[in-house]
Design a protein that fits this description.
This protein is mostly helical. The chain is built from 27 helices and five strands. The strands form two sheets. Strands 1-2-3 form a three-stranded mixed beta sheet. It is found in: Membrane.
Length: 694
């Protein structure tokens, strides 16, 4: 790979890379001062700095597309020879642009969505701080610096999930009064923020352990240093520590990307403003785990060249992704809250990305799964951010998070209706015209053709999840935009609040992303080919990972011609069938209204039980609370009541009484009368003489 040195580009390229993540931090510093003069101006400051950061990222695209990288370092911790640095290789540049431009659009959206909020300064401070931390993750050239950004996004997420910390009922998630396994399933913003912080910290600690375990053998945190000298991997493998260290690193990705079993925090994170949900929990932070795996996967896969097999590590990734994809998709089928449906969908789609990256490591054609996973990351970031922002506009107007309080909105919010259909079709994988179709098809092909032991079960899970995804997306659109107006809307109209379209500052950003979902989708196969070719060159030159360069695209086979040349026919048929079945069922129940879903569920004890099981989140959330909150508190209180108060205090009674008695005896001897002291002194001498005579 050609490396652009500092001298070669006169320092300009290096400065642009540093500017991408430093500019948002400067905005975070400036915003509180600006807020003292004008709270509204804080939004414009945040937007301006986000735009500057995005432009800096965009200027690096030509170098990335030419398979060049910028790697620049400065002194940091000299005692251990550690340097701080930026690494703008093709992977980082593509990811940085996804983060930068979608963040910019969400910042613009936020100026309308958060208008009038009295804590506007605090909101934009944390949004800018988050953006800087996320870009630091993407552009860092070593584990330790990346971890600083990792913790930064975690801190910002905690602050923004619990942003409405006054815990008003309208800001809760869940249904008031609802219980699962005896525990309330209704959460406040402050509780949700703490839950997100604690659960992601479990993964963070695992990641920290993996980092330092590798450092103990390699003596470096640097990604390029670890790639160039793999003696550390040989030493770790000899002691059976390499795969545990890799899995520990993946633990950090599990926490940040809300994968099973650390997925439950993401659903409660919907207590934050919708702009936060779009930025952190759809387009960027939850993708940090995927990016980490994409950063590490080639390094571990390339170890096969020196005889180190990492299949177990990649199997863990693939199965965690597959389980999460199916688990959260089933819950999204039945939930009544629009933001939670989108949250379930986010975790599920990230599961697809993890599955693709895991399968890449189990396949001879590593680049196929790698391309599929990253392509779906880009695709999902566009349509899911659009869907979240559109949902925020609906919540802004309707004043309720429940889809049962909506209905018939297509007559009143025509722009949002059109854009939500476009983005929703991307999520469903509508054939040939959406990015979601091509990226999911790429994942299907990569899984099906991987040739590993788990190919068929993983492929089956992927297809079933796609069916469910198309169903719950159609259900969401049907409940929100079709049918009659809900009683809630009728009551709002009686009170003089009429449903209307959101302002341009809100609908333009999610409109742009919805149009891109279709626009890029129309040329989706060519877009996929471009990414595939880019990663072929990148993985080959940087990690020595060979690929069949003669393959036009993922799953190249001669069975299809024309514009479908290179598409795997089995994957294509599975994609078409999944969309048709899922959309068809959703249309029957929620758009055409040919059958009543409530009556259908209640008509059969099996359907009723399954519905309840999914609605109760497979009981996993309740079991986590019982196992890690309720039971430990119960044990701690029991120890205090029966052990500390009775046993420990009982043991303390005898020494306490002995000391008290001795103190009273000594106190009695202190009379202050000289004759008494002489008498005691004399008695003491007699006792000594008596003992000597004996």
């Amino acid at each position: 790979m050609a490396i652009l040195s500092f001298d070669f580009i006169s320092g300009l390229g290096d400065l642009r890379v540093w500017a991408i993540w430093i500019l948002p931090f400067i905005a975070a510093v400036v915003i509180p001062a600006v807020g003292k003069a004008s709270k509204r101006a804080t939004g414009f400051v945040a937007v301006a700095f986000a735009l500057a950061s995005a432009i800096s990222a965009m200027t690096l695209l030509p170098a990335a597309l030419g398979n060049h990288e910028i790697h620049n370092q400065i002194p940091w911790i000299s005692s251990i020879g550690l340097k701080a640095g930026v690494l703008a290789d093709p992977l980082a540049v593509l990811m940085s642009n996804v983060v930068a431009w979608i963040s910019f659009l969400i910042f613009v959206y936020s100026t309308g969505y958060m208008k009038g909020d009295k804590d506007l300064t605090r909101f934009f401070f944390w949004m800018a701080f988050f953006l800087g931390s996320m870009q630091l993750i993407v552009l860092s050239d070593n584990f330790l610096q990346l971890f600083f950004g990792w913790e930064g996004v975690g801190l910002a997420s905690y602050a923004l999930v619990g942003f409405w910390y006054r815990d008003k009922k309208k800001d809760y998630v869940g249904t008031e009064g609802r219980h699962v396994l005896g525990l309330i399933d209704y959460y406040s913003p402050t509780h949700s923020g703490m839950k997100a912080f604690i659960m992601t910290k479990v993964g963070d600690i695992m990641m920290l352990a993996g980092m330092f375990l590798i450092f103990a053998f390699a003596g470096t945190f640097g990604f390029r240093e670890l790639t160039e000298n793999t003696s550390w991997a040989t030493a770790m493998s000899a002691q059976h520590l390499l795969i545990p260290a890799a899995v520990l690193l993946f633990g950090g990705a599990i926490g940040k990307s809300a994968q099973f079993p650390l997925n439950e925090w993401l659903l409660e994170a919907m207590t934050g403003p919708t702009a936060v949900s779009a930025l952190i929990h759809a387009a960027t932070m939850v993708k940090a785990g995927v990016f980490l795996v994409a950063r590490l996967a080639p390094l571990f896969f390339a170890l096969a060249a020196i005889g180190i097999n990492m299949d177990q590590f990649f199997e863990v990734i693939a199965w965690v992704g597959a389980i999460t994809a199916l688990l959260l998709a089933t819950q999204g089928m039945v939930h009544p809250e629009i933001k939670k449906v989108l949250a379930y969908s986010t975790g599920s789609q990230i599961g697809y990305m993890m599955m693709a990256l895991g399968v890449a490591g189990l396949s001879k054609q590593f680049v196929d799964g790698y391309t599929a996973g990253f392509f779906h990351l880009i695709s999902h970031a566009m349509f899911k951010a659009s869907l979240f922002m559109a949902a925020g506009s609906i919540l802004h107007v309707v004043g309720s998070r429940f889809m049962t309080d909506m209905g018939g909105l297509r007559k009143y919010m025509k722009k949002t209706y059109i854009f939500m259909w476009a983005a929703g079709l991307g999520l469903m994988g509508a054939p040939f015209i959406t990015t979601g179709f091509w990226s999911k098809d790429a994942i299907f092909a990569a899984v099906y053709q991987s040739g590993n032991t788990w190919a068929l079960p993983l492929f089956t899970i992927a297809v079933v999840t796609a069916v469910i995804t198309a169903f719950y997306t159609t259900r969401m659109i049907g409940l929100v935009f079709f049918g009659n107006k809900s009683k809630h809307i009728e009551e709002l109209e009686k009170e003089g609040h009429h449903v209307h379209e959101a302002g341009p500052s809100m609908w333009v950003p999610y409109g742009i992303l919805a149009v891109l979902t279709i626009g890029v989708g129309v040329m989706g196969l060519a877009f996929e080919h471009q990414i595939h070719d880019l990663f072929v060159n990148y993985l080959g030159s940087t990690f020595g990972i060979k690929s069949d360069v003669g393959a036009v695209a993922i799953g190249s086979q001669p069975l299809l011609g024309g514009f479908l040349e290179g598409v795997n026919p089995i994957a294509l048929m599975a994609s078409l069938a999944a969309f048709a079945i899922g959309f068809g069922l959703g249309y029957v129940f929620y758009i055409g209204r040919f059958a009543d879903p409530v009556k259908f569920v209640n008509s059969n004890i099996f359907f009723y039980a399954i519905h309840k099981f999914f609605l109760n989140r497979w009981y996993l959330n309740a079991l986590i609370y019982w196992g890690f909150v309720v039971a430990p508190l119960y044990i701690a209180r029991g120890l205090y009541k029966y052990f500390e108060n009775i046993v420990l205090e009982g043991f303390n009674v005898v020494p306490e009484k002995t000391m008290a008695g001795g103190a009273r005896i000594m106190q009695a001897t202190q009379t202050g009368v000289s004759q008494s002291y002489l008498y005691i002194f004399g008695v003491g001498i007699l006792i000594v003489v008596f003992l000597l005579l004996i």
